[in-house]
Amino acid sequence: MQRDTLAPLVIGGLVAAAIAAGLWVTGGPKSARAEKRDLSRLEDLRRLSEFINCVAQETKEVPKMLAPMDSCGTDQPFLDRTSNAPYRFEKLSDKSFRLCADFERPDLVADYDIADGSLDRASGCIRMNLR
Prior knowledge:
Largest sheet: 4 strands, antiparallel
Radius of gyration: 22 Å
Low-confidence stretches: none
Strand order of the largest sheet: 1-2-4-3
Structural class: alpha+beta
Oligomer: single chain
Helix content: 40-55%
Mean pLDDT: 84
Shape: elongated
Number of strands: 4
């Protein structure tokens, strides 16, 4: 092989290896889409948390189940936009509750994304207290 054709092949090989390594490290487009869907789920849980806090202010306790309430807004994300599965809700006490979603990449949900709750990555549930 001549010297003038070897250099472009080596450079091309290095570029291909760098692209492959970048996709391996970041997870590629599929992982990015899953992360975006998880951020959407997290935003839905935040909205539901605000809704629950509003209902609790009206009724003086955490509701037993999630249902629309005119005074707190009827346009709540009770269902996962991707799977149409309902978000899970559990009343723990008059002052605390759990909201759960089926996260695709819970390992990528950062603690600061959760704000005032704590995420159990294994179950996909966030434990929250009333404000």
